[in-house]
Amino acid sequence: MYRKVEGCPTGVECPPITITLQKDKAAFLVSQTTAGRKHIMANDAMPEYMLRNRDNWHRLAQGMRHAVHKDEIVMISGWVKTRSWVLGLGQKRGTTMIVNGVAADNANEGLRVDSTDPSSVTRRGPAQFRLQSGQINPLRDQCIFLNYYKAKSRIFAPPKLEANAGPHNLPDSNEDPDNERFDVTTNNDVETTSGDDDDIEIAEYPPVPSNHHPIDAALDFILESAECDVAIASDVDVHDILEGVPWPDDVNEFLKRRELSLDIGEDKKVGKFSVKDMIVRKYQNLAAHRHDNEPIPPEPTDQPGPSSAEHSDYEQDESTIPTADGRWRASAIIPGKIDGDTFEWPHIKLSEPDDDEAGATCPAAVSPDGKLVAAGFEDAVVRVWDIDTGALMLKLQAHADNVAAVAFSPDCSKLVSGSADGVAIVWSTYTGENLAQLVGHEGDIWCLAYSPDGATVATGSIDCTVKLWDAHTYDIIHTLDDHPSVVQCMAFSSDSSLLVTSAQDQGKVWNTRTGHLVSSLSGHENVVWAVSFSPDGRRIVTGSEDNTSRIWNSATGDELVTIREHTNPVWTVQFSPDGQEVLSGSYDSTISLCDSYLGTQRNLLRNVASTVTSAAYSPDGDYIASGYSDGSVNVWNAKKGTIMADFKGHEDKVKAVIFSPDGQEIVSSSDDGSVRVWSMEDVVRLVPTF
């Protein structure tokens, strides 16, 4: 069980942690400081990697004069490290052990444990984790937990040979007489059995103890259930199988009662738990514990604002709609399924139960902290969900027409939405309060953006203008009116000093402080549909109806590179996080990855015969997500150019795909009115990248 204890004010001793043992021989560990975890995500290739290398590891261990059996070698895949810790070992059920905190400004005392049973044992790491300067030592060098893989070979009881047996019972002449698998005994040492002399009874050896480690029980289960030479499993496998419940006393029996699927290689060398099965089971378990229409409470927040009760009583514009008991409704869990070689990916469909008339959605947005997803709909409502649970947190109603765009503030405290009613509204993400209405446009708002520094909101309209608003006072700062037509799209530079906008076949770069035009991007021969800044803000990439994407100098407007890799209009463009590459997605069903300085093509991605409507790099640049007009969402290895997953669920054009800030989820929104959350962790587990 994991419990987080919040820090204490300076000079105040933390309250003690009281632990009562529920069984004999129990243990606990307390980390005095925040621990850090690093791990290689459990995936389908790790067992194969271990199988290929464990003979070499065993030889290496023997060369270092370590007397270990091959099956005693484990492969470390992750760890948890901290600065200071204490371990308590209790011998008797009912024992109370108290962990005493220390003053926050005197961390050198460490943690102390008092026990009602003198036979209890404690161990602790270094108490002194502050430097002489008084600052906390940034180095977490105390390893308290490990993630690992373990293998077990199938071992058979050696056939016993009678000393006075005939020649037909002896080993073949080419057998090694020193081979340890033959145990030569006298006639008095064995039982006489009837039957054919060639019949040998084989049993697994050594016998399995009833109280051995759960990972060992998992390995035994694989060997008992499948024909394979070696079983390989990890602690993560065991955790997934247990689904968060405490380890049972008899893990062997627990595993036998479960309907577990195994993957066995064609050569039958290695057996392992099916990753597909575990992924599906995770979502089935989630769905079983939370029905689609069952209300659940929102996650508690440390952010300022009214309590949940006050939130429920808020009535302005009916912006928050709790259930009768003040709790929040959940979205649909799509468990997915395995049908032969076909795998339907599990995911969460963000929705509002009992409301199927919301209409198409605008491109969704993910909050910078990765906790919330927002989208606007044709029914003039903005909906906000918790990305992890799928809970509908806010239903924001004040617009009079279709909501075309939404964006979160950098500190996640606000959400701005723009509508065909010509108004942008700023909402509180804590309370759902309508904080301000940005009125000034004379037509529909088509696009908007929050500046990265949180100081400015930009809105673009069919009235051919862009307006810059003070994000704190909500006053108009500048009106940028040098556009020949409807403002199609916009983007801020990373330092918030520049804004690029597009209208017709032109791009405009603006100084956000002065409102002055910095440069014009002229050269395209048709409508510009997409714009994106490089990470350093010095370059801009645009995608156009003229089948090209172009890279420009943002300060001068000079065209640096013209990329002509498509045969149809380009709908989406983006720089890679390191700025070395650009992607462009086209009506011709392909995504082209090109060197951002030379324009040379590095990879061409194509999977479905459908228009690429949206594409995005993951935060680390290793993956690409793409959306299509047929509703498909694909995930690609950006370095290899290979497809990793083909998500099915949307029934109409995908408006947008976006990675969460930590890269763990992909959010897609569609004209079918749905917003869906797909797990990147599931993809990497099933389709390893090494």
Structure classification: mainly beta
Strand tally: 51
Strand content: 35-45%
Poorly predicted parts: 102-108, 159-211, 291-328
What is the 3D shape? globular
How large is the count of helical segments? 7
Mean pLDDT: 82
Spatial strand order of the main sheet: 3-4-9-12-14-13
Helix fraction, binned, reads: 10-25%
End-to-end distance: 33 Å
Instruction: Output the radius of gyration.
Output: 31 Å
Please give the largest β-sheet: 6 strands, mixed
WD repeats: 365-395, 396-437, 438-479, 521-562, 563-593, 605-646, 647-681
Pfam families: WD40
InterPro entries: WD40/YVTN_repeat-like_dom_sf, WD40_PAC1, WD40_repeat_CS, WD40_repeat_dom_sf, WD40_rpt
Organism: Somion occarium
Can you put this structure into words, describing what you see?
10% of the residues lie in helices and 38% in strands. By secondary structure, the chain is mainly β. Residues 102-108, 159-211 and 291-328 have low confidence and may be disordered. Residues 162-200, 288-326 are annotated as: Disordered. Residues 184-193 have a biased composition (Polar residues). It holds the Pfam family WD40.
